[in-house]
Amino acid sequence: MFGSMTRLQWIRTPDGRRLEASHVVAAPAEDAWTTLIDTRRWPEWLPGVSGVDASHRHIREGTTGRIRLPGVWTPFTITEVDDRQWSWSVAGVPGATHRVDDLTADRCRIAFELPTQAFATTGAALYALERLEELLVPGERRSTEQL
Prior knowledge:
The chain is of the alpha+beta class and 147 residues long. It is built from 4 helices and 8 strands. It is globular.
């Protein structure tokens, strides 16, 4: 999966310098966004997360809850939701910003902006992008579009 449509790049945001992991997916932006904000679907694409207990199924600013990581439930808070972008803190530590950019009617870019304290999760972010593509794009369509 990791080819010309997957990028790692340094970006500047209002929150400072971040490492952005992104991938272009052959799916409508609305489908990607719906998957990202549905807490019941997080275990399908978030590496290491085997369960979610949240105050809202579809996140919004202020949603709180906990994610089940190997051996421990860890609290989270959604700190911002705006224009197909959301940020969170996990165990009180600022985490990634998750974003979906419209490209065309049936293509979008999914991006994770990793703050400096989360650089160690770059591999997990890339894996999450791969899992999201598998969920959003049927296998036959995914394989023909990569040729």
